[in-house]
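Record 1 of the preview.
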Amino acid sequence: MKKNIRFGFISGMLFLSLVSVYFFREPLSRHPLQKLFSIPALDPLYFLKQTELQRQVKKSKGEIRLQGFTNGYLPKRELSSSESKQRDLHFSEPSKHSQDDSKLQPVTKEELMALKQCYATQTCNFPQTDPRSYEFALGRAIALGLKNYFEQNKNNLQSLEDLTALAQDFIQSRDGFVQDQALDILAYLPPSAENLESLTQALKDSSDGDLIEKSLAECKRYLNSENGEKVDQFVQHIVESGGHFSSQRIASQIIPFINEKNFQKYQQILARLPKESVAARNLKASMEEYLLLKRGS
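->
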């Protein structure tokens, strides 16, 4: 009896030792117990909160190759011996209690463009627990990276060209968070026909009422310029053919965009809109208020 108890005790200790070696031979973030302590699918910012993101970056024939390590975004790749340039990069969420630029983790233009490629590859390290979880987490990562890059480079005149290119590129994103951040950069940059063209092409069919409303502030900068007609076309398209909520909201806020030259055009749009629609009622109210203001002046 005692021999059996002793044998069972020794066997149990040996089993626990083997289990310990298996589970704790490497960091918790890489072994199966991670699932018991962390559920990334419940927190879309999980991948943004890792403070030890390291990547190896190398340009080769116009391509950016990155190697992800523990909790990295990008899939791991084997680098050849010729790809010897390496640098450690860190990408994490900035403190919500501080706007100190020095505390923002550095992000490069190459990193942002590499993250963009994750849409096409669908192989980057973002949760895929439902049909939209991957793109949602990826969009938040890009938006945060774009914000960090902007904060770090907005006062550097040599970076204006890169900021402009990134803003024009990412305003075309299908993610609202990314578009919102790109719009912030466009608002910071000097007005240009190219910037306005990027904005109007990207947002003309958007159903995001908040984003469209925010874009109006940027459009106002172009009203009295040679690009005023482009602004008219954009606003009129949103009111008549834009997303449902965008059309309703913008129709109630277009008084600054109405003038003697385009008033008739808005009358034509009003006639084509369903009479009982919210957009039609809002547009009619805006036009009536415009006339009252004009008479008062």
